[in-house]
Amino acid sequence: MRTHAQSKTGFRSKPGSDTSPLPSVRSRQDILTSTGAKMAAAPQTTAPNAPASSEGILIGDKVYSEVFLAIDNSLIPEERLSPTPSMLDGLDSHTETDLRILGCELIQSAGILLRLPQVAMATGQVLFHRFFYSKSFVKHSFEIVAMACVNLASKIEEAPRRIRDVINVFHHLKQLRGKSDQLHLPKPG
């Protein structure tokens, strides 16, 4: 026999309160209205060594509050596409394109060896491209970035692989590339 405080589902509640065990579901419009419809919160500069407020997280000298992704802000702005950070560091466009292709091929090969779904490999390639639209090939190793992108993409697409497996696959691919480079060298003498 049920008491007054128990509902049909077995969850206890106070008399006279809602007995639904499920939390209330808010619509996207309610969420946008309650958050002030912020699209992408820009970092706010604070004084050095200032304590983090309840509004966000202090990283370095900037407070980051929230990130909201929508189709409007998911595309890279056109002004960031033309002079990439690598071009600003002196890398020519042709070499940058070759490094982007090589990085994507490396991600694809690693994904095949790790038996990742194709969507995870594509996500890794997108992460790779987006990273190098904000950072330079001159300052960051494309092999290490490709490895990180595969690891992150496998987690995002819910096909996680151990970091040890990812490192071993990239080491194996590096050894294969080294052997194929030795085969194409002219013989001495």
TrEMBL record:
Residue ranges of every copy of the Cyclin-like domain listed in the record: 105-185
Gene this chain is encoded by: ccnl1a
Protein name (database record): Cyclin-like domain-containing protein
Family affiliation: Belongs to the cyclin family.
InterPro entries: Cyclin-like_dom, Cyclin-like_sf, Cyclin/Ssn8, Cyclin_N
Top-level taxonomy: Eukaryota, Metazoa, Chordata, Craniata, Vertebrata
Molecular function GO terms recorded: cyclin-dependent protein serine/threonine kinase regulator activity
Coiled-coil parts of chain: none
SUPFAM superfamilies according to UniProt: Cyclin-like (SSF47954)
